[in-house]
């Protein structure tokens, strides 16, 4: 396990900030608390490394990424165990996340070879015109704790594939997975200074990121307020920002849906990672004619979940990340009950104590409740009922955010109407799981401004340059 930071190919920093296992409260490691000066040093190293890295043949960059992918696959189980120890998610989900994280590296090792320019029609006789697609430069990345591996690789892999160099600040709750990935990247041949990983004071490091003259892009996944703050600060020097922020996903079940499939989809979408993903169903809208049936089946599935330490095989729900996360779930439940919702199952802290919480289903949810407007980010499934398609579409779109939405229906015309009219960056029809390295992940409205994954994921990390050659 690596507990120091990687700057310019060297492992640096003193053990300072504790990393705890959320299932036990036990301190499992201490990582450095670096500040603005060290962050500037890492950015300087990335700027220096950029000159060489951008010039490397694409086959070299592709090969390095491929070797990194191979090392991650080889160490999958150890990485998953580390991830569960610092984040809490069930070990099966952690293994799934490592596979998913690795898939971005594999994809961009391949996509590196397809970052293409264009030849344009010459505007005048004796000229030739072209478009070059070049790496944007040094990129500064900030990632959250809910996917300690995947949020990193889906930014770092396209950055390195494009020829950019990186300084990454992982979440303070989950730095160990990030440092382990960095150690494997180094082993895979990522040159000194091309990937730097620093842990420490978020504000101070953020200050270096937004003010350093060589940073050309700030990539961030996290909360909407911090995203807005970074976007504002980045504007001072016109740095590009790529933001993946919060959601408030509607999950809509029509009267013609296959209810078993809808319940399975709701379970996957809502309770994965204990409800702590930005694409988790937050508002479950069910047609009034099937609402009771759906809710009863959902409650039965929820009661079959196994809560415990993520490291124990068979566990499907671990602890929440911290006390603040637990309090938010409790406050959303209290607010919903005060506004007329009814508890169907769960609703309380779990007997295991700590930040364990019972997966919860509420019925009779309404637009007056906080859960209609705010992302719970926890294991709470509130069921709203609706009378017709126009009503539910309006309710689903009445949100400041627009990341993921889910619809269950067997009607083909309705499928297209919903797909086209939901104001969301991603829409899943008859599925509760959307993400793939081959698809563009991202949101509209206040959910962000970028896409990660697929060939579109290269866009943020590259600039277009128009070249016109005259006198020919
Ligand atoms: P969450 O509530 O899920 O932790 P945050 O947006 O607070 O969401 O955190 C996401 C990431 O942003 C973390 O790596 C965190 O350390 C970082 N972060 C938080 N505040 C700032 C800031 N002012 N400047 C830079 N990074 C920040």
Architecture blueprint of SSEs:
Blueprint lengths: L4 E3 L2 E3 L4 E4 L6 E5 L4 H18 L4 H17 L1 H12 L3 H21 L6 E3 L7 E8 L2 E5 L7 H13 L2 E5 L5 H13 L7 E3 L4 H10 L3 E7 L2 H12 L4 E5 L4 E5 L5 H13 L9 E7 L3 H13 L19 H16 L3 E4 L14 E4 L6 H4 L6 E7 L2 H9 L3 E2 L1 E5 L3 H10 L4 E4 L14 E2 L16 E8 L3
Parallel strand pairs: 7-8, 7-10, 8-9, 10-11, 12-13, 12-18, 13-16, 15-16, 18-19
Antiparallel strand pairs: 1-2, 3-4, 5-6, 6-21, 14-15, 17-20
This protein binds adenosine-5'-diphosphate.
The site of adenosine-5'-diphosphate has 13 residues, from helix 7 and helix 8.
Helicity level, as a percent range?
25-40%
**Biggest sheet architecture:** 7 strands, mixed
Bound molecules: adenosine-5'-diphosphate
Number of helices: 14
The strand count comes to 21
Uncertain segments: none
Structural class: alpha/beta
Approximate strand percentage: 15-25%
* Physical arrangement of strands within the biggest beta sheet: 14-15-16-13-12-18-19
> Mean pLDDT, rounded to whole units?
98
Keywords: Oxidoreductase
InterPro entries: Ald_DH/histidinol_DH (IPR016161), Ald_DH_C (IPR016163), Ald_DH_CS_CYS (IPR016160), Ald_DH_CS_GLU (IPR029510), Ald_DH_N (IPR016162), Aldehyde_DH_dom (IPR015590), Aldehyde_DH_Superfamily (IPR050740), Succ_semiAld_DH (IPR010102)
Domain Aldehyde dehydrogenase: 16-465
Active site: 244
